[in-house]
Amino acid sequence: MTNGRKAWRLSNGETELSVTELGGHMAPVRFFADTDSLVEPYYISPWQEEGGDVPGPGVLGSLRGDFFCMPFGGDNSLDGDVHPPHGEVSEAAWTFDHVDAAESGQTLALSLETRIRPGRVMKKIGLKGGQSALYISHEVEGFAGPVTLGHHAIMPGDRTHFVDTRPLITGFCDTAPPPPSSKEYYWAAPGAFFDSLEAVPTIWKDPSAVDASVFPGLEGFVNVLQVFPEKPGDGTPQWITAAVPSHGYLWYSLKDPDLLPSTVLWQEHHGRHGAPWNGRNSCMGIEEVRAHLASGLGVSVADNALTGRGLDTSMHLDGRKPLEVRNIQGICRIPEGFDRVADVEFREDSVRFISRSGSDAVAAVNWSYVLRG
Question: Whole-prediction pTM value?
Answer without folding.
Answer: 0.97
